[in-house]
What we know:
The protein is built from eleven helices and five strands, in the order ααααααβααααβββαβ. With about 375 residues, the chain is α+β, with helices and mostly antiparallel strands. The protein has three domains: about 30-145, no CATH class; about 155-160 and about 300-364, no CATH class; about 170-280, de novo design (two linked rop proteins) (Up-down Bundle). The longest helix is centred in the C-terminal third of the chain and has 30 residues, at about 255-280. The model is unreliable at about 1-15 (pLDDT under 50).
Amino acid sequence: MKAQGHCTSGVCPGASANGEPVSIYVDYNHPLLQLKRALPWAALCEVMTRRWAAAGKNTEGRPGLPWDVELYVPLVVLMCVKHLHARERESYLAENVVARVFIGRQGDPRPQIRDHANMARAYAALGQKGVDEINALSLHVAKDLGFADVSILSSDTTAQELPIGYPNAPGILRGVAQRCGRALAKLTRRGVLGVDRALDQVQTILRSVKEHHLFAKSKDEKRQVLTRLLTEVGQLIVQTRPMVARLAQSRDRVTQSATATLGAMHEVAKRLIPQIVQWITTEVVAKGKIVHAGVTQARAIVRNKAGKKVEFGLPYLLSRLGGGYVFGTLIRGGVDESKMPLQALAGYRAIFGAQATPALVVYD
């Protein structure tokens, strides 16, 4: 993305239609520039280059468009430090002079800074383990500079609730059917036989979901439609399972993507259907219930709090060092509060060493 003019022609006196370069003084001791001088850039480059190479990015100088490591590394660090998503980072760099100095592009009036889509792909290619490695390096720097007091460790569990609609069972089943439908449409375009029947079943499921939302008024009517929905989704899984097995060895990229989606939805349905059956029969939300067909890590967390018995989202264990520095991890499986203090200590030692022990450990 080229830097654009940020002054409307005719509004600012003396400004040209394309803007004009200006000189702006930036304080040497600006916090962002102090951070730039303190960070271990060689180690950060090693971590990110290794992760990007594993994700298939062209960091080794192969033919084709090279991966600009020198640009992407400070951009990712800036995203993490300022807690910006890709679109916010794009706007921040377009307007903030210190940010340009931080990434080393202050000398070029029209720098080729990547847009939000490229930045989102760069961040995603690091993966969670890559981001954790970067965070650990930053915490070591904060410790060495005396900003982080690693003798104090305070931890707690929390749930990151997702920006999705209320996860009712018909809506989740509709998500399964829609994803299967998109995968089946790809197979149709590839000339795969036997897809029409499964596509018809997808439309049957979508009609049943609409009936549940619009026409089923009483509790008994909703339960009847939901029970029928479970049967229809089960039939869709039965119809598409042989298709996945038959196409498993295909070398066509589109076919591979479609069958992978179908296989993933089979796994979701395998866990989701019994959870919904439990709800129908007992009206009790199953622990770890899937709440979104596309984000299967998000689950129902049964808290039994006053006014909020169930939270829907991703369970995290967050830890805070003295000085306010935070690190955390996504909790896999159920949340066992009795094990969380030891897990927090294990996360601390994964960063600061196997023998590192804080003087004070607090867990809520």
